[in-house]
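Propose amino acids for all 240 sites.
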């Protein structure tokens, strides 16, 4: 197994981040610094990051959390704010959030110690859909604006990909995106003249938030984890 993949499976970081960690000279194999992320490792030699030995867990875990507003989607926060990791009790497991939600956005976020799965679920290549419900200003949203959101709008970082958009009721939109830019839903809605008042993510790939209470967390079943793996198994070329 390549070193970067080993680190991802060990829950150190996503594969891309693991490659950077290796390149920085922070990883040793059998006591020697290795800077090649493609270096083969088979588990027989000790691997350490920043002098701390890491091992591939026998079984990874994935949790679903209904993130409350005001909680940040990081493992640590330099400003002392509460993080999503602090809401999940999993002694001895180093968890990472899968992607991010803005501090003021609520809803479904996943946490796992499986860096490879996290990378696949968030990498643009795999186009894993995320569904949001947005309460916007200036409702009802006219068909012209809905069509613009569906076709894609041009933001300051380029045009957005086509999205699934429908109006659930006056001023309340359901949006399904297959990309994950920073504050994308908010920027898209503002672009068409309907700034977001409240935003919640209700689905991540095949997994839905359902009736999970705000602030509550649950461990996913093996079947649910497999469904997530299947969703990120290969690039999806269509909206479905």
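Proposal:
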């Amino acid at each position: 197994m390549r070193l970067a993949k080993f680190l991802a499976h060990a829950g150190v970081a996503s594969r891309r981040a693991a490659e950077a960690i290796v390149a920085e000279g922070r990883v040793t194999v059998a006591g020697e610094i290795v800077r090649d992320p493609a270096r083969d490792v088979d588990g027989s030699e000790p691997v350490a990051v920043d002098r701390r030995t890491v091992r591939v867990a026998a079984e990874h875990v994935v949790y679903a959390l209904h993130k409350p507003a005001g909680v940040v989607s990081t493992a640590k926060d330099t400003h002392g704010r509460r993080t999503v990791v602090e809401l999940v009790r999993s002694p001895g497991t180093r968890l990472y959030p899968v992607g991010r939600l803005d501090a003021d956005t609520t809803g479904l976020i996943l946490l796992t110690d499986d860096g490879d799965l996290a990378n696949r679920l968030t990498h643009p290549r795999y186009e894993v859909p995320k569904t949001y419900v947005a309460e916007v200003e200036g409702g009802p949203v006219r068909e012209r604006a809905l069509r613009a959101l569906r076709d894609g709008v041009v933001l300051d970082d380029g045009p957005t990909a086509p999205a699934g958009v429908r109006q659930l009721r006056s001023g309340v939109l359901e949006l399904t995106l297959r990309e994950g830019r920073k504050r994308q839903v908010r920027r898209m809605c503002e672009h068409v003249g309907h700034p977001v008042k409240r935003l919640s993510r209700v689905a991540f790939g095949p997994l839905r938030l359902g009736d999970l209470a705000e602030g509550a967390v649950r461990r996913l079943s093996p079947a649910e984890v497999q469904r997530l793996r299947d969703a990120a198994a290969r690039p999806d070329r269509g909206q479905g």
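Residues 139 and 171 are 4 Å apart (CA to CA). Confidence is low (pLDDT under 50) at residues 236-240.
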